[in-house]
Amino acid sequence: MTPKQRERFAADVIGGLQCSPKTLPCKYFYDARGSELFEAICQTAEYYVTRADLALHEAHLAEIANCIGPNAHVIEFGSGAGIKTRKLLAALDRPRAYTPIEISAAALKRSAKELTQAFPDIEICPVRADYTRPIDDEALALDPPASRRVVYFPGSTIGNFTRDEARDFLVRMANIAGPKGAILVGVDLIKPRERLEAAYDDEDGITAQFNLNLLLRLQNDLGATLNLDDFAHEARFNDEARRIEMHLKAERDTVIELNGQRFKLAAGETIHTENSHKYSVSDFRELAETAGLASTRVWKDPEGLFSMHWLEKAKPPAGTTEG
């Protein structure tokens, strides 16, 4: 972590702990240990998301590749050297290029190397950036350009955003895709509370370790003073917001000290660390419409647990012209 990244991390933590209720940004889950723990979560019996997403790809890959078409530039938010990315690239017709966007230099370098070896005929153009922030279009330019850009965002990360944030994020993806481009985004579907809560609170306690690792990062990366044993993992479904929430719950009165500031937590108080919003197909289509996008194709895995939407710029109503 560079000094500038550490400074931003500390500022985000202090800002979140000053809020009421207290929060910590979920993007800081993913240091090396956090990434390893997330990979372990994906293997748990309770966490259906990764398996359902892969099953969706396997069931509908030919149709998805046909929508993308030949000579496309696939831009993935994330380092993308996994099974889904490989399957997608292998299924495409003469893809022009593939660009992974990733904030971690190590992850980006590793994925670019692996994909260059696996797909020597595809131009791999890695971009190191925080994809939650604006990205300079020059970093994504190709010479000659591709026939179209497709922003690829598998998994359920769109659910980490509030609905307003998700709308704004979709607008940014649409701007990157351009007027002739498209977005391919994974969306987790609403299902019974019991299954959702189990997926984020597995019996083996791996998700709990993942959540508590955020506090370890405060200690190790920022020099914060806190007692890890004072906190416990909590996952609960918020019916009104239709989302799973992860929290770090204070088991007793405790204090976090960082950069000379003290943040007191009373017993039972929580730090909200992550949201995972769940949608029906119609809900997400309506959200996409507010971003000026039309969900023209939707695929689901065979069990109907997970979905993937093909989003394009919405056409103006008949009889109108675009300004």
Describe this structure in words.
With 323 residues, this protein is of the alpha/beta class. It has 2 domains: 3-30 and 196-273, no CATH class; 49-191 and 279-313, Rossmann fold. It has helices spanning 3-17, 32-41, 49-68, 83-91, 105-118, 163-177, 193-199, 206-222, 281-290; strands at 22-23, 72-77, 97-102, 123-124, 127-128, 148-153, 182-188, 231-238, 243-250, 254-258, 261-265, 270-277, 293-300, 306-313. The strands form 3 sheets. Strands 2, 3, 4, 5, 6, 7, 13 and 14 form an 8-stranded mixed β-sheet that branches. A 4-stranded mixed β-sheet has the order 1-12-9-8. It has a two-stranded antiparallel ribbon with strand order 10-11. α2 packs antiparallel against α8 (206-222) and α3 (49-68) runs parallel beside α4 (83-91). The mean pLDDT is 93.
